[in-house]
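Appendix B. Raw example, untouched.
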Amino acid sequence: MKAIHRLGLGVFGFCTGLAFASGGFTNDTAKLISMLGIGALPASFITYLVADTKSQRLLTHAESKNEQAGQTLHKIIRDFERSKSRLATVASELESLKDELKEARNTINSLGHNKLESTALIAQLQAKLNQLSTQTQKDTQRIEYLESETEQWELNFKTQVEAEANKRFQLAKSQELEKIYHEHDSITSEAMQLFRRLQNWGEKVAHGHQSKAEIIKSLASSYNENLDEVGEAIANERQNYIEQIELLNERVGQLQQQLAGDLIEPVYGDFGFDINGKIANEIARTLFTDIRLALSVKGFQVKPDGVVDIGYGYSRSVHTLAIAEAISKHSDTLAKKLGLFKITSVRKLEITDCIVVSYRMGPAIKADEIKLMVGTPDEFINYVVSHPIRYRLIADPGVGKTPTTAVMISEILKAGCTRGNTGKGEKVPHTLVTVSYPGAVASLKDSNYPLEHFLKYGDTTAAIKSFDDCLDDGNFRVQNPTFAANFFQIWAWDELDNTLNSCSEPYKAGENLKKILKQFGHNNIGWIVSGQSVMTKQIPGFTNDDRSLFTEIIIGISKIRHYLNTYGKGKNSESNLAKLTRNLDAIEEYIEHKNELVTDDARLLRVALVVDSRSPKLYFLPNLDKVSFNYQEIEETKRLARVAKSPDTGYTRLTRDTLNQSIASTDTVMSAASFSTIGGSRPSDTKPYCPHCGHANLTVRKDKRYYCLNCKKITVSNKIVWK
């Protein structure tokens, strides 16, 4: 309608404009057109009105329908949403109902099985119950029969006993009564006669007896009193005489002993408040109390080195050697009771009859003085990592060879090895460690062997094989200098002397090992050996001149003394040797004093002598707590070495990425493991078993060791038993 309206206005405007453009209404044609336009205007307007009215009606109708359709649509949408929510609720309820139905079905099935089992069990129990009921009825009947029979027998027996007893009682009663009656009559008659006679006589003497009784009673009481007093006086006098005789005998004996020069009891000295004087008196008192040894305290002397000498007099009848020996045997007890550090000596003075007891309140050397004699554990570690790796450890069993070796290898791996095994110079990028210990498998002492991660040869057969493997490794390094330049190899032979003695030809094996050590010493091969023998010539195939192949480390005071007595004069002057021997005595006292405070055996203070080429050095050894291995780096080094030794892979193919490649490992089931066993390889058709409990329930840890899920113990791969 609006379009028609606009069209009419447009026509009207066009006609008007045309009229004005033609110079007014001068042109006829223009006028005609203008008139026609004006004439057409009412018709278009009327048409517009008519069309507008119909359109308006249709539009109103369409709008109402549209509004109804919109309302209907909104209602349908709301219904759809409600139906959708109801459908979701119904679906969830249906799922819940399905779960409940499934659970109910499982419950019904379980109840069905339980019902069947219960029915069978009830049937069995019912059968047993019936059987027991039948047996019970039989037993009840039997018991009732036996009870009735027993009651009948008891009744019969009781009746018969009572009848017989009554019969005999009546008979005895009648006889006894008759006898009593006769005796009573005779006695009564005699008694009456005597009573009459006595009554007459009693009346006569009653008066005289009464007076005499009073006199006798008074005399008896006075006599008894005097007699008791005389007896007590005599007994007291006798006891006094006996005591005086005993005292006189004791005094005579004491006077005889004193005349002979003996002591009856300790004689104490008067030293005021001096602590050393009190200790001197207390030693005399304790000896007399414990072993009945009487001494006379003469005096004491405090020496500049801290030793206190106490002089004691003694009985002449006792030999001086017996007195000194008795005090020496009791010295440890005396030291503990009196809180002394040590009774150092008991001796007799040559110039007079006097026993001298010497003691210390503390060690001969102090903590600041010990530093001048013995190096610290850190200084020992610095020495080990800065010198060629060719060490030989000598010690008695259980003194600390294995922990010391573990600490040395741990620190060497941290510091790195030097090119050519010189102890100084360029560091070798990687270090490999191989350990041979023939007692690893069978030893109960080393159940937690600290070097088991490096252990490859764990029994005697495998340990003997290690010498051939060392020769092969040395030849490989000669032929492959690039490999040798990048991988330093440390061979650790524990119990070397025992291993060589176990060979079929010990001296030949020792000669071959000596050639290996001499030939490959500068091909980046180092060695750490240990044993018990001080003398090198006792190792098969070696002589005392071959000591130059090793830097000897002797552990323990007793072993150091043995070494100094054997080889000390060769490298030391008489004065240095005497000084070192004296220092060992003081160091031993210091170590014993400190170790008394230690409760953990792994932290005991231990000393070692390092036989350096210039002069011997004493060091305190680090304990096992210093051991720390980076197992991931160790496994990576082993992997790189295997790649480098592979026949189809030259060392030049080990690129930077290969050398820096990291390892990621997780615990896996044992069936996926493939590690070498001691002295060989794992058979493909066998299973691993724990050597401690014998179970096969094992897993592999990240550090490649085995963990037993049964006994909870960790075992290195070389100790695993394959069956």
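End of appendix B.
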